[in-house]
């Protein structure tokens, strides 16, 4: 049975956060983070700037690495070739910026593929980049710490959701015993491990990596021709996969102070559509609060457009039109199941988590400013 929604559970501010770049710091070292996912290859190069970081270069390419993986269990040669080409572009950027500190990771597609070791050897041979495959828990931890600045000081129960191309990570965190001013920092410290006891009282109640993301969920239902029928089936199938997640399986009476943060291209696309942005603007999207009614309205508009309409809609974009409905099915399911009518939108995720983790480890981030929203 789903948890009940308490009175006041959605009482969170609509304040957006400041962008990553706070001020120039030309003397600071550069750091890089690369996320090789099921659908995209994305990289950020940044330098520390106060308690945040300043992005100096970025790269994003939809390589569709996981195309055909559901059927064959293997990464295809065309998918690997596209990905290697993208990684060669990343290598040139890293060399041009003379980046020394970097972490380059691959996620669900490479975790699942039978030929992933061969692919890692191919990457080393063709690009020289030290790409590593990380497990689902580390992926979830990195997504969580990237969202730390968005945690409200009034949050006692937090659900972080990262909708990826091949998997969706959900992490439920109890912050009730943490001093409100320390809650963002407490989230940062969870990067050391979900099972590591935290002296400040932050506790991971449960986490799950559902092996369904926007690409893998779409692939499972691509033979269903009816647009709305496919959407309903995807939503139902995703909810079935949550049965072993403790906050779903056990009835909970929630108090005030529940917050859900969503991070993914799906979430930011829905937010941009809600705002009516013709050109994407991160400063308007990151930290935005959306109501369930607003999310549902955008999704109804997407369904009314149909496949051809979504392809032509500039709010969705040509690169995301084929994936937006599977992502929307996941998002709508999560908002239906958990006890809130509001979602905090995060234009941040694995890459940002990788940058934060490296910089925190090296002690180059200022401690002040990581206090979350009031």
TrEMBL record:
<dbReference type="InterPro" id="IPR003695">
    <property type="entry name" value="Ppx_GppA_N"/>
</dbReference>
<dbReference type="GO" id="GO:0016462">
    <property type="term" value="F:pyrophosphatase activity"/>
</dbReference>
<feature type="domain" description="Ppx/GppA phosphatase N-terminal">
    <location>
        <begin position="45"/>
        <end position="359"/>
    </location>
</feature>
<dbReference type="InterPro" id="IPR050273">
    <property type="entry name" value="GppA/Ppx_hydrolase"/>
</dbReference>
<dbReference type="Pfam" id="PF02541">
    <property type="entry name" value="Ppx-GppA"/>
</dbReference>
<dbReference type="InterPro" id="IPR043129">
    <property type="entry name" value="ATPase_NBD"/>
</dbReference>
<protein>
    <submittedName>
        <fullName>Ppx/GppA phosphatase</fullName>
    </submittedName>
</protein>
């Amino acid at each position: 049975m789903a948890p009940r929604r308490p009175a006041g559970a959605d009482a969170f501010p609509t304040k957006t956060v400041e962008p990553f770049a706070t001020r120039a710091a030309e003397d600071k070292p550069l750091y890089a983070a690369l996320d090789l996912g099921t659908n995209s290859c994305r990289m950020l190069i940044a330098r520390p700037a106060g308690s945040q970081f300043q992005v100096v270069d970025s790269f994003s390419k939809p390589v569709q690495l996981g195309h055909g993986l559901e059927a064959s269990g293997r990464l295809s040669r065309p998918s690997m070739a596209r990905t290697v080409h993208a990684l060669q572009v990343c290598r040139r950027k890293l060399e041009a910026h003379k980046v020394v500190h970097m972490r380059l990771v691959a996620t669900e597609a490479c975790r699942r593929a039978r030929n992933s070791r061969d692919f890692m050897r191919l990457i080393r041979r063709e690009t020289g980049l030290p790409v590593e495959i990380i497990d689902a828990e580390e992926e979830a931890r990195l997504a969580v710490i990237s969202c730390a600045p968005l945690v409200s000081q009034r949050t006692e129960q937090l659900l972080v959701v990262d909708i990826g191309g091949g998997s969706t990570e959900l992490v439920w965190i109890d912050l009730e015993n943490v001093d409100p001013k320390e809650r963002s920092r407490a989230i940062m410290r969870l990067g050391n491990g979900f099972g590591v006891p935290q002296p400040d009282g932050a506790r991971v109640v449960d986490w799950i990596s559902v092996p369904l993301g926007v690409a893998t969920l779409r692939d499972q239902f691509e033979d269903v021709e009816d647009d709305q029928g496919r959407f309903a089936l995807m939503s139902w199938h995703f909810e079935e996969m949550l049965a072993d997640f403790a906050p779903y399986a056990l009835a909970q009476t929630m108090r005030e102070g529940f917050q859900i943060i969503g991070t993914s291209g799906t979430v930011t696309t829905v937010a941009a559509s809600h705002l009516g942005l013709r050109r994407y603007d991160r400063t308007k999207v990151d930290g935005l609060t959306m109501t369930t009614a607003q999310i549902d309205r955008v999704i109804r508009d997407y369904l009314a457009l149909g496949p051809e309409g979504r392809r032509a809609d500039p709010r969705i974009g040509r690169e995301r039109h084929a994936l937006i409905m599977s992502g929307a099915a996941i998002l709508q399911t999560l908002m239906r199941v958990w006890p809130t009518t509001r979602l905090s939108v995060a234009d941040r995720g694995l890459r940002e988590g990788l940058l934060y983790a490296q910089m925190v480890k090296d002690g180059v981030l200022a401690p002040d400013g990581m206090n979350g929203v009031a």
